[in-house]
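Curious: explain these tokens?
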Amino acid sequence: MKRSWRSKWRVSPREFLGRHYPTYCPGWVVLYSQDVAHKLYKEVQHEKFFWIDDVLVTGVAARKVQARHLTIRPWQWSSKAAEQMLKNATKPGADQRGRLVFGPFELEAEEISALWALRSNNKHSTLLESTLGISVNGTN
């Protein structure tokens, strides 16, 4: 948590009382099951507004509805993996069957489009498993 006046992410003690944020998903990709999304939505309606929505929804509200965080790293490609796929895309026999759900956050729009084109043309694409994201009380 940033308390420094110099930070654009500065949070005053008035805005957030605790010394630390609860565990939350900082992010550009968060996956929810329908039941969890509904519970978080309902919980957030009763919460005091907090402008850092990641902390509010996936931290404060998730803790109150007893949601648990699961990593999505197995379905995320690293920058290096994305670069390799784009570089090798035109080579015969290039393996494009990896379980890509999303790439690294620092990709440019053209790279995202190119990766999407490679994956959407792949007959071996896998469906996103329902066990990803956040589950409540250990259920998916």
